[in-house]
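hi! just following up on the protien thing from before. the input was this:
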Amino acid sequence: MYHYHWRNGAALDVATLGIGVMLFISPWALRYTANTAASWNAWGLGLTITLLALAAIIAFERWEEWINLSLGIWVVLAPWVLGFSAVTAAMWTHLVLGALVVALADDAQRWSDDSEGRFDRPPQV
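and the predicted 3d structure came back as:
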């Protein structure tokens, strides 16, 4: 029988998964599907962030958090890079959810460091 060991930072990955789903459904929920750049960015990045978070829940690897951190930065910058900053709902959705992905990925990295015991023992001299 398989027994899953819940690691310290897994709750952060669950939250990231939820944010990825919210980003994915936001074009329909907030009615900005007419803007193709905003919609396709939300669908593509929402799906990718969701799948990476799911992978991190199942089998954590540090690279998953680094990729989500990078994707979160892109989500924050996308309204200006792709030119949909005038679409208020899309801009705010990308800004807020992207910032949350960045913060959660950074925290997951820190939890990962802590679970490896790097913060509970003094540095080696």
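Residues 8 and 115 are 7 Å apart (CA to CA).
Confidence is low (pLDDT under 50) at residues 116-123.
cheers
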